[in-house]
Amino acid sequence: MSIQDRYRLWSEDPYFDEETRQELGKITDPQEIEERFYTDLEFGTGGLRGIIAAGTNRMNKYVIRKVTQGLAECVCDHGQEGMKRGVVIAYDSRKYSPEFALEAALVLAQNGVKVYLFNALRPTPELSFAVRQLHALAGIVVTASHNPKAYNGYKVYWDDGGQVPPAKADQILARIEARESWLGIEPLTIETAKMSGLLEIIGEEIDQPYLARVLELALHPDLDAQKGEELHIVYTPLHGAGNLLVRRALAELGFSSVTVVPEQELPDSEFTTVPYPNPEIPATFDLARKYGQELQADLLLATDPDADRLGVVLRDPHGDYVQLTGNQIGVLLTYYILSQKKALGTLPENATIIKTVASTDLADEVARFFNVRVENVLTGFKFIAEKEKEMEEGGWGRFQFGFEESYGYLAGDFVRDKDAIIASVLLAEAALYYRQVEGRTLLEVLEHIYAKFGYYLDDQESLALEGIQGKEEIARIMDSLRQEEILGLGGITIWKLDDYEQRIGKDIATGQTYPLILPPSNVLRFSFHGGGFVMVRPSGTEPKIKFYFSVKADTLLEAKEALAKVKSDFMNRVAQIRSV
Q: Which CATH number fits domain 455-579: 3.30.310.50, 3.40.50.300, 3.10.620.30, 2.30.30.40?
């Protein structure tokens, strides 16, 4: 079917509602029609993510229907047992999230699949927990995480609570693609779904056991209960799903001095108080900083709309607020967990942390100091969760902590995705412990880590390259970087180049190659002698190409200078490729 045929079908067939047909009928730009209909919105290992609008390459209820029908057929492949185990569905505060969640629920019900639908917005990590708690076969969360307000998404989880593995994702995709027609997928009515027992609304009966497991992760619960009120925290859910559970978890541990940013407390699909709801961006903390200064708060916390990412800002000795990077948060939590478990005698011999290849090498050094194994995996928290499952089933490692530089963290064995509720609890407890027991702030602890292991600084750049031309330009950049022999960057010699797409690494000095054991992925990583790297990869969820920079030096000043030189050198190379 041609682009124009697709456009006419969606614009004219009565299967599509009046709102959809009117929206499409108003388009006058042929380029816009092409962008909306030249392909189907891609279903990858994590699911879907796209701009909310009518069209096959956009997020809307008809795309939700078709994808959910494919998922339903895969569930039905497991017979009556799989259909009875069913699917759990959660959603965040984005535009149409409740509607998309209900649409998916009713398509599943139409196929005879049991559905557990949360009664209101909930964090993504709680969905992961709920799949395991209810022994469901699969899960769905409707979210676009920290993307701009124009986006929404649809993430699929399997029975272990982790994002759907590649083999299962391929099966779902095959069912989606086998259905050529967009017509004829009719959801069950909500009344029929409820009366037949196929649709069950859930809420507090999942919240309670989830929170109980979160609180079990506290390493010093007595200290939290006795002194928690002395730590002053400002928290913002950024209009998202973290509000109730982050506050409950902190309060139940003893952190009673928590002020929530009132302007950002309630759900708002327009995210009117922030440029876009990403806790990596300093502007998302503007309101939190204001309240922090008024209250002289020790700690500012922010969770993204689906509460799987955590941003942290700390008050320095001068009363100013310093935002931590995702790597700094990850290193602080790694150090806190490992050092405290060692002191408490609870660090097992086969303790392991898991991090992504895009995350700082400083965590590897910290782990080695505590004689803890490090597993490095591809970018994407699903790979951390898969490695945790592999260790658990194989019995060769005991998971202690996992993180990725993009503000995702996990401890415990009851969630299989990054969890900002868990991270909030552990970060607050670490701040309290170091102040009350050791008389140090988290910034002083971070400085101690740098002094001991070296000053690791990191940064990122990304280029947004949208549409068909953008895809082609991203491919050209990656191809050129693969072909060019780069011996050094910013005056620092490159030790080795790992090409994860070809699954081959190369020692630059000797020319010797070695196999890479991770799955194929379009990633290049240039590692420096002594620590640090530059990595480049196309984003898996946005029309971007991302660049990661990490350097190590003996002093902070040297690290800053090295980072600036490396970034400038590499981005100039990218600019030259784009100019050809």
A: 3.30.310.50
